[in-house]
Amino acid sequence: MTLDKSVKDRLVADICEWMDEFIKKQMTVALSDVHDAQSDANAKPFHKELLPRSFLRTSSIERSFSTMLGKSYERHSGIIAESRFAEVHLQHKTEGTLLEAVDTEISDEVGRINKGKIFDNYHVAIEKILEMERQGSGNQVTRAVTSDVYLKDRAGNETFFEIKTPKPNKEQCLNITRKHLWIHAILKKPPPKVTTYYGMGYNPYGEGNEYKHSFSISHLDIGRQTLIGKAFWDFLGGDGTYEELLEIYHGVGRSKAKEIQEMLSI
Predict the structure, then answer these.
(1) pTM summary value
(2) SS3 letters across 169-209
(3) Which domains does the chain show, CATH number per domain?
(4) Percent of the chain with pLDDT over 90
């Protein structure tokens, strides 16, 4: 087993706490606007383990649940990572200076992506701005970035995560690239000394299937810039973490099933 008992107990307690809050908030919500929340482009493994199928077909309730679940990913990331990393911080602020010319280049790069330039290699973009920092001179500007999750391993390597929806819009994709290039320019370090990822809690197309959200694949380097579903959770906790986490969600879902059915008369 990858996750030890203390980690599992903390995860169960957290999930139960926000599930109780969610159930109370939804007690008076009318069940209407039915749709299929489990279509090919909406595989939601954590939703599925916690909620009855009929519950997932109620769009207003499902949206509220998704919001609360999304917020929990950050907390769960911290709980899981603490057993493997020397330092773990949520809402970690990175602040410092970079050359004004580098800041302009980052803006230009984001602008090129926005205009349709294919973002072939995120690591090449990082190396370009770091080379400008090494060779350049001139005015400095100050930038600050708050990362959802910050990790430092026992070798001193740092990893910064933005954890957001697995179906971001174009502006979210562009902002992530801008913020993460700022981090590299401020710290003056490339991967693996400093690594920046967009973490997605699950693959909406189903684990093991190709990730194909149009804005993401057009505006992010999916292979180098993102960790999705199993790759994300296993990075935090080691091989098998994703499956164990789903088992934890399944167990909580079973324990709450009767309560959900009774309260909402599903």
Answers:
(1) 0.87
(2) CHHHHHHHHHHHHHHHHHHCCCCCCEEEEEEECCCCCCCCC
(3) 5-83+240-264 (no CATH), 87-235 (3.40.1560)
(4) 68
